[in-house]
Every structure is written in structure tokens, then in C-alpha cells.
Design goal:
Radius of gyration: 20 Å
Helix content: 25-40%
Shape: globular
Order of helices and strands: EHEEHEHHEHEHEHEEEHEEHEEHEH
Structural class: alpha/beta
Strand content: 15-25%
Number of strands: 15
Bound molecules: threonylcarbamoyladenylate, magnesium ion
Length: about 325
């Protein structure tokens, strides 16, 4: 059920029930982070393995202090620069954060979403919200209330409508190895923008422990349809005239007249990476619903947020 009023969401969350909430990145499936039974229901509804921890959402960096221990100086700098915004920081948790939230890890992922409705919601609650992306495990993250409704409408989930997500891909996750900054997940804030504040980032290498970290879940953002990254869309279409294809297209080249049987989705006519980011998941999802033989895309320009977009399409293409 899609609703507009935050009062309905507040009451539902206070009762320990789940509500899908808008953020600037993607919609989240939210519950009271301090209510273990509610958090359990998130794992069940998403069909998510319990060793994959959840991000805690708070109204401000000040509010975050209540749930963490020592904070490295660089974390404070990043928080001052990017919060509210699509940055998640991995910090030492304190006892208030249930182990279920962090999948047993001593670190909690914490963020302040930049969305006016959800910030008002968080300010009205006396508990933080855990919110993984509001999709069944391994499916494409939703960027509109309608997409969440399509996934979970049958479960009578309340969806707080906050419009189309402005960024369209998940937050950038930064943690610390001692005091040096480590990139755990590329996202809506580019590596370059983070490095301007903290200097060179180390890339997180997964595999040391049992907690699933972002890099490990390769199939995370996958459509059901075969997904291919191709060097040249036009050449691919010419070589596969019999295939039922969907194309995720960037830029103004007109191909649809020559290939009338092919489904085209335009990500950004002006080849703008931010605009493409806002449109990517919805376009992928819509093509995925059409029963095509394959969805094809050319790699994005490998710079700024284009790097994060390339990360997501590589995961979608992973088989
Ligand atoms: O933009 C976002 O971050 C969205 C919106 C809804 O806020 N949320 C989101 O959550 O993408 P989710 O659960 O789909 O992805 C969170 C990622 C997961 O890959 C998880 O493994 C990692 O963050 N993560 C969460 N807590 C962690 C922790 N304590 N240690 C290591 N990784 C963690
Ligand atoms: Mg997710």
C-alpha cells in the first residue's frame, strides 16, 4: 500500500512493523533498529541471509554518536562534508546496536539519508531505522514507490512515497583500517570526491571473515534476463538480428529507427552520468519484465560516478 503521510509510517514503525521508505539513493525496507523481532522480519521478507548486515539510518551525525564508540578523525571529516547524503560510514558499534543488525560484527554501518520526508520521519522517532534496499535478495534495488509495490504489494507492506530517488544507486560505504580509510562499496559519492577529503583510499578485499561484505555478493544487482556489457551496441544489434533484445542507451545516437523490434531505454540523452545513475535501475527493471533474450549496455565512462555504475553493471552481468 503506497501512502503519502509520514504519520502513518511513524505509527507503523512504532508498532514494530516494517515500512518502505524513500531515500536519495534507493528505497529502503525500514524497521526499528533496536527491536530485534522487527529486524528479523526484514531478513525474512527480503529472504536475505542473516550473515549480511544492515545499515542503520539516523537523523543526523550527532544522533549517530549514540550508537558508536571512538570515531576516527577522518570519519568526522567525511561526515561533516557528506552527511546528510549518500555516504555510509563503518564504525565501532556500542552495546545499543543489536548483533543481529551487524551480523555479529563489531562494526556498524551508519548513514544520514538526504531526503526531506525521511529526515522528518527519523526526527519524529526515538529509535534509528535499519533499512536495506527494498528488494527481494539479489533483485534490482527500487528507485520508486511503484517498484517497491511491485515487489512487496502482495505482502501488504506500507510504502511511504517520496518520489523517484534522485541519485538512483546505493550509498558509498567507507570504513577504516585503524585510521586509514577503506572503500567497501562504490556508490553515489564518487571515489574522487571522497579522496579529496581523506586522500587515497584502500580498496576492501573480502574473504577474511563470515560476515558478507558488499564486494562478496556478486549477484547483488542482477536482473533475471541475461545481461551483457558490449563494446558497441550498434554492432551487436547488427550481428544478432533474430534476438529479442533490450538496450540501455546513453547519448543521442538514433538507433531505434533502424531496429524497430528492439526495446530501447534512454539513460541520458546528453550522456550525463548523474542522470544515467538516476535512471539505470528503473530502466533495467522495466526491460527485465519484458521476457527478452538479453539486455545489452555499453560500459560507462570510467570516471566519477561512472565507476560505480560500471561496478553495478558488471555485477548484473556476472553469471
Ligand atoms: O543507499 C543505501 O545504502 C541503501 C539505502 C536504503 O540507504 N541501503 C542499502 O542497504 O543499500 P543494503 O542492505 O542493500 O546494502 C548494504 C550493504 C550490504 O552489502 C552489507 O553487506 C553492507 O552494506 N554492510 C552493512 N553493515 C555492514 C557491516 N557492519 N560491515 C560490513 N558491511 C556492512
Ligand atoms: Mg541491497
Amino acid at each position: 500500500m503506497i501512502v503519502e503521510e509520514i504519520e502513518l509510517a511513524i505509527n507503523t514503525l512504532k508498532k514494530g512493523d516494517l515500512v518502505a521508505i524513500p531515500t536519495e539513493t534507493v528505497y529502503g525496507l525500514a524497521a526499528n533498529a533496536l527491536n530485534v523481532a522487527a529486524v528479523k522480519r526484514i531478513f525474512e521478507l527480503k529472504n536475505r541471509p542473516s550473515n549480511n548486515p544492515l545499515i542503520v539510518h539516523v537523523a543526523s551525525w550527532d544522533a549517530a554518536q549514540k550508537y558508536v564508540q571512538e570515531v576516527p578523525a577522518m570519519a568526522t571529516e567525511l561526515a561533516h562534508r557528506f552527511m546528510p547524503g549518500p555516504l555510509t560510514l563503518l564504525l565501532q558499534k556500542n552495546v545499543l546496536v543489536p548483533d543481529l543488525v551487524t551480523a555479529g560484527s563489531a562494526k556498524v554501518a551508519i548513514r544520514v539519508p538526504e531526503h526531506s520526508k525521511t529526515l522528518s520521519l527519523l526526527k519524529s522517532l526515538d529509535f534509528p531505522l535499519v533499512a536495506p534496499s527494498a528488494n527481494p535478495y539479489t533483485r534490482i534495488s527500487p528507485t520508486s514507490a511503484q517498484m517497491v509495490e511491485a515487489y512487496f504489494g502482495k505482502d501488504e507492506l506500507m510504502v511511504l512515497d517520496g518520489g523517484h530517488c534522485e541519485k538512483g544507486i546505493e550509498s558509498t560505504i567507507v570504513g577504516f583500517d585503524g585510521t586509514s580509510p577503506v572503500l567497501y562499496r562504490q556508490g553515489a559519492i564518487s571515489i574522487e570526491a571522497i579522496e579529496k577529503v581523506v586522500g587515497p583510499l584502500k580498496m576492501f578485499k573480502s574473504g577474511q571473515n563470515a560476515t558478507i561484505t558488499p564486494g562478496m555478493a556478486k549477484l547483488h544487482y542482477a536482473p533475471k534476463t541475461k545481461f551483457l556489457i558490449v563494446a558497441n551496441i550498434e554492432a551487436y544489434l547488427k550481428a544478432h538480428p533474430q534476438s529479442k533484445l533490450g538496450v540501455l542507451q546513453m547519448g543521442a545516437t538514433i538507433l531505434h529507427e533502424a531496429h524497430s523490434a528492439v526495446q530501447f531505454k534512454q539513460l541520458s540523452l546528453s550522456s550525463n552520468l548523474e542522470e544515467a545513475s538516476a535512471n539505470l535501475y528503473q530502466a533495467m527493471y522495466e526491460l527485465d519484465m519484458l521476457g527478452l533474450d538479453a539486455i545489452i549496455i555499453e560500459p560507462f565512462q570510467d570516471l566519477g560516478i561512472g565507476k560505480a555504475l560500471n561496478d553495478r553493471i558488471q555485477r548484473a552481468a556476472f553469471v
